[in-house]
Amino acid sequence: MKTMYGVWQRLPSTAATRVTPMKSDQNLDISGVLIPFSLALYKSTLAQMAAGAILKICLSDRDTLRDLLIIVERSGNDVLAWEKQDDCYNVWVRKDRTPLAPSQVPGSLA
Questions:
Q1: Distance CA 23, CA 45 (A)
Q2: 11-25, 34-48, 70-84: segment of lowest average pLDDT
Q3: pLDDT higher for 1 or 84?
């Protein structure tokens, strides 16, 4: 059973993962931006994009990465790929599904 932390649990804690460079429709650099502002920027940027569009996000903080992956999964969007390159995590997200109702979120109390 996939948990709300399913994507996060699949990420190795160390070694960089290389992905084939992926075309994105928009880029968002939130490296150095503190939580919750970084997550608000992500949500605002994605809200302005069309369904099926791909957003490449660059961030530097592992805690922000963890929170971002949880939000992506809960919101019904897809993490297509990720990589750690030097001090930056690059994450590609596709906007394509409607958000889950609170009762559909794994681990939800609703």
A1: 17
A2: 11-25
A3: 84
Give the Å distances, CA to CA, from 62 to 8, 48, 110: 11, 25, 28
* Domain spanning 22-98, CATH class: alpha beta
Q: Residue 107's pLDDT is what?
A: 54
Of 6, 18, 3, 7, residue with least CA distance to 79: 7
pLDDT score of 4 = 43
Element of type H or E holding 45: helix 37-47
Structure tokens at 1: 């059973």
Q: Where are the domains of the chain?
A: 22-98
Rounded Cα distance, 68 and 59, in Å: 10
Q: How far apart are CA 108 and CA 89, in angstroms?
A: 28
